[in-house]
Design goal:
Layout (H helix, E strand, L loop, with lengths): L1 H58 L13 E5 L5 E5 H14 L5
Antiparallel strand pairs: 1-2
Protein name: NF2L3 factor
Organism: Stercorarius parasiticus
GO cellular component, one term: nucleus
């Protein structure tokens, strides 16, 4: 009787583990699908951002009416909603200063 009860518990444990594996496989497939959808969404947003960036720079002119070179400037949006066109060399130096100020995490 003890051996029979032991086999029954073992069989129940195996069945529970098989059910857990099946549930985890279903969850994995669901997460893969969700990841794929998010990746597609990110790609679309990046494309829209690139299109917007090109559109903005195609309309910008300097003081003399010449087109602004997008290779030399970046668009910066502040937390208050203001938008600035900043020379890239200034942005890079600011990022370096910010990186030096922040303690490195290990």
């Amino acid at each position: 009787v003890a051996a029979q009860n032991c086999r029954k518990r073992k069989l129940n444990a195996i069945l529970n583990l098989e059910e857990d594996v099946c549930n985890l496989q279903t969850q994995k497939e669901s997460l893969k699908k969700e990841h794929s959808q998010h990746s597609q969404s990110i790609s679309r947003m990046k494309q829209k951002l690139n299109n917007l960036y090109r559109d903005i720079f195609s309309r910008l002119r300097d003081d003399e009416g010449r087109p602004v070179n997008p290779c030399q400037y970046v668009i910066h949006c502040s937390s208050e909603g203001s938008v600035f066109i900043i020379p890239k060399h200034l942005v890079k130096s600011e990022q370096k200063q910010d990186n030096e100020k922040e303690p490195k995490e290990q």
